[in-house]
Design brief:
Layout (H helix, E strand, L loop, with lengths): L1 E2 L3 E2 L2 H11 L1 E7 L13 E7 L7 H15 L3 E5 L6 H10 L1 E5 L2
Length: about 100
Amino acid sequence: MKAKKKFTIPKNRIISFCNRWSVTEFSLFGSVLRDDFRPDSDVDVLLVIKPDAPIGLFELVDMQLELEKMFGRPVDLVEKEGLRNPYRRKEILRTAQVIYAAQ
């Protein structure tokens, strides 16, 4: 998987992460997809988690830490369901690139 040729993550690692954490959709958004992505930029990740998954705050922190280790940089983890601000939601959903979607 490539995002603007500057950031490569093996898709098998994303699939493994999603299966382990009950993630049904994994997307990237923000600067990782644009030309302004820099070496010090964070990676914005949008997740859809199975409704019945036992994921709470502590699990979300563990997920974020795992992704930061995988990517080698800070991660801003956002749950699609948690996007309450209509303007932010519209912009994120308009620009997000789905990397993994469960079948």
